[in-house]
Amino acid sequence: MPTPTPLPAHVPTPTGIPTPRRGDPAHPTRGRAVLALLLALVLLPVGLVPRAAAEVRDGLPGLDGSDSALLRQAGHRIAPGLDLTSFSRLQPGGWVTGHVMTADLSTPSLSLDVADGGTVSASNDTVSGFAAEADAVAAVNGDYFDMNASDAPVGTNVSPTAGLRTAASDPRQAFTLVDGRAVVQELASAATVAFDGRTVDVDAVNSPSWRTDELAVFTPVWGSHPVGRLVGAAEPVRVAVVADGVVRSVGEDHSVLAAPAGEGETLLVARGDARARLDGLRPGQPVAVDLRASSDVDLAVGGSQRLLTDGVPTREDQVTAARTAVGVSRDGTRLWVVAVDGRQADAHGMTIQELAALMADLGAWNAINLDGGGSTTLVARPAGEQQLQVVNRPSDGQERLDSNALVFRSSATGPAEDVLARPLLDPPVGLDADGAHDLLPGLSRTVVGVGLDADLAGTAARGRFTAAPGAVLRTDGGAALDEEAAPDGARDGVVVRGRAPGRGTVSYAGRLPGGRVSDRVELTVHGEMTRLEPSSPVLALPDAPPGEASAELSLTAYDADGFAVPVETRDVEVGAGPGLAVTTSGPTGFAVTATGTDADASEVRLRVLDTEVVVPVTIGFRTSPVADFSDGEDWQVGTARATATLSPAPGPDGAPAVALDYDFTTSTATRGAYALPPAPLPVPGQPQAFTLWIEGDGHGAWPRLQVTRGDGTSTNLDGPHVDWTGWRQVTFAVPAGTAYPLTVTAIRFMEIDAADSYTGRVAVAGLDAQVAADVEQPEEPFRPDPVLLAQGDVDERPQRVAVMSDTQFVARDGADGDLVRAGRRTLREIVAARPDLLVVAGDLVDEASEADLALARQLLEEEVGDAVPWVYVPGNHEVMGGTIERFEQFFGPARTSRDLGPTRVITLDSSSGTLHPGGSTEQLRELEALLDDAAADRGTTGVVVVQHHPVDDPHPDAASQLTDRVEAAALQRLLTRFRAGGKSVALVTGHVGTFSADARGGVSRIINGNSGKSPSGAADEGGFTGWTMLGIDPGAGIVPASPEAVTDRTEWLVAETHARVDSLTLQAPDRLAVGGQAEVTATVVQDGGREVAVAWPVTATWSGDGVRLAGSRGPAVVELDPASGRLTAVGAGTATVTVEVNGETAEQRVVVGR
């Protein structure tokens, strides 16, 4: 077929065309002709649906500008005229998490000040400290300062209550208030000294940044840092000490600068040529010192770059970092105070240009950059609280000692007139906590309520809670709030418990002087709990004195639709094994502490409702040598698309090592150089990690330990990229849930970036295992999800979409190579099944050379042609040897969207391992726009999103999933939010090497296994080859307000796997007596001998003469339960049990006697 060519805009489904339903006699061809017409009409390009820049949603500041995507935001009140919005978003530079405080300066009760430690030097404090001392409701860090020296601010700072604090010699941008209006302007010193009939300019006041040939004034405000340290020891100075307006002394002795200015004293310090300004000054002479800034302001906080000038962004730029900024509206009555986090996975910070764009998006007319980096700190006392809280996450990991802060005070008076309620799990400030508003039947949620005084601080309200409807929620009485939950004692609390699925409301009615007022908390009760997961399947405590080794543990409950609900501690029965103590730690957490017995292994048992989980706990570990490389001459070299040699070498401290000289310039595809031991290295026990000494060359190769797990499958343990030189010990963690024992089979160094080409030399020495005491490893339950059928097919669904992936052939193996033949076989099976659409979900090729892609094109044209519409979604192997543009030359756009009648199919490009390749947010913004359009389009009932990488890899090592875990979580939220809007959605992927399916947040997630390449998982856990057919009923795509778990997902979409079948055998008894039972099994043999049990996720159709399936009615000789394989003889006679897998059948005759 020709390459799909997108249209210039997304075309909605034409109206007036009925949606066919399979089995409808009016559509004997199952509507395929109609759907083919629709495909021809509505093949969609992916172009952006325009959105207003930085639009304001729900009254919050506009934060979706600057080409950002995946925005989360939450707003909170602080005080009258002062609100706070926290946000997280992805923008082209990376993830940004920040906070915007808006201030309405026309609010009479709101005032601003500049707070410091009482002096400006040697008195730094945290922003929390400044705010508490100033009795503020909020504060943000202020001016840059002379860090690790005098710690004094370097700009001009003016307090409305304490006057001029510092004045710089050079003009610097400052945030100022003038007659109640905000202005960003340059400020400097305009101080003067008058004596002997003349007036002398003073260059700086209490400033650490004055220079040679300048005159500075230091008052007691300066503080205790010796002024003498600001000048060179041999530098000529002239110092005058003025007390109560009279010169006490004049001289050039530095010693006078060792002591701070006393009460009523002023130091005049002239450096270099400025000494001449004090000529004629003598003791006893009257002096008038006038301290002022260059502009008459009521308040000033010094800063640096002017971000916006009359709406125009600055051209300056700097590195990415945490940032603090203040923006001002055009009329000066509104402020935007911004704190952006930095140096964290979900918060890389901002450049100056990005910060300027944000301030413009928010609506600022002028804006200034204040001190940032580790100094960035925003604190606030949220509505309903009495204590200040740190709102952001300082990039130093804790609050830095800053020089000053811009503080906000509120003086509103009057009786309490409002109340506030929230789940205790939801923070009073910041982004909402996942699951805080969710419940499952039988689980509880603590809801707290409090009165709000005129300043919005928390106050007692003597309130009453009610929950409705009673069929969904019930109250369990008042909650006992500890000091952490109610530090001020003003809060009321209630325990609310879920009764049945649905949406409910908890109301809090307070009795206040002005009468009753109320607030409401919306809660959603999802389906019955189907599983319980601990935050860590195994806890590893280090060796430590009794009571000092501790770890946190919490539980999450899930329903059958994958809704995750944090479990509060009251709902958990806890049992601690020998040597352990378990105490509560917050509403949902437990602290597990080693008590100091001789036990090196124990366990914690946690029961919720009727489900129990056991968390093994190890205490300490021993180091066990795995390879000392004394046999280095026997080690072998291995390569992939590279050349390398291996030789013995000296290691650290003279220990033996082996060196790997490699050449990664031979290909742009993934390259590897490996050190292979003479024989596989078995590792006894249950190692938690391996350590290996690596002599780095700084080129950035990726070290990996290849190991075989206890279940016979292979995986890699990843280390950090070798960006160092010299010897360094590296740790390779073993994921919890790994099947033991482990065997090391290779030490691998990889290069996966096509743009990186280099030669180098690394060496390795001393491979050790950190082995903890043996514990019974918790088995990850293999949980069948009904979205993937174990029994039946999707033939009667109105729409069917075939999915294949991960064939991974290379052209150099020829057009008749094994993997090419496997791909052809898969395509022929799909064409014979006559789906409405074929989606190749990535990794059809292995190296993405031009020859590979040309062969892929040839295969699709020869085997599919125009028999079935198809779309090719790129995977990581489609860009292994180059860029996505090469793929697009052969197959068109890397991302597409099309409507199959009422079903929208969106395909995304995750070939880079993320959905934002090269930092571009375009694809994610397109996805948001397409989902918004689908939600608004009355003709669309559901969306299928296809990409190569899954959100989550079901294997313990989680090595095959979206690499940006912040993006993965955000994508899941986006899809869950779409479904909550009332329409169905599913995510279909590949990449993992096994067939699997689950649900998260009501979203079915289907992983197609390999269609050619050998699987990566165990055969009985989806590790087989084949393809998947999706069956969709668009008429069932609309999701009700209270969906029924599983049913509403699977009525819209289910899937069947088509395992490759070389042979199929059925094992069943020849004879049974009436009432007797036996087990029936079937086995698929594929790909030269792989045996696969016919059980989920293998889809089969069980049937037969005289056979009744469990749950059905009617006469029968035997009853068969396909899920358990149990065969029950129910009547005398002869039956034939039949199983069909992917068109192949096997049968067994069973005679039942009395």
UniProtKB/TrEMBL annotation:
SUPFAM superfamilies attached to this UniProt entry: Metallo-dependent phosphatases
Residue ranges with Pro residues bias: 1-17
Region feature Disordered, mapped onto this chain: 1-28
Residues in Calcineurin-like phosphoesterase domain copies: 800-968
InterPro entries attached to this UniProt entry: Calcineurin-like_PHP, Metallo-depent_PP-like, NAGPA
MF terms (GO), sorted A to Z: hydrolase activity
Protein's name in the database: Multidrug transporter
Organism, scientific name: Auraticoccus cholistanensis
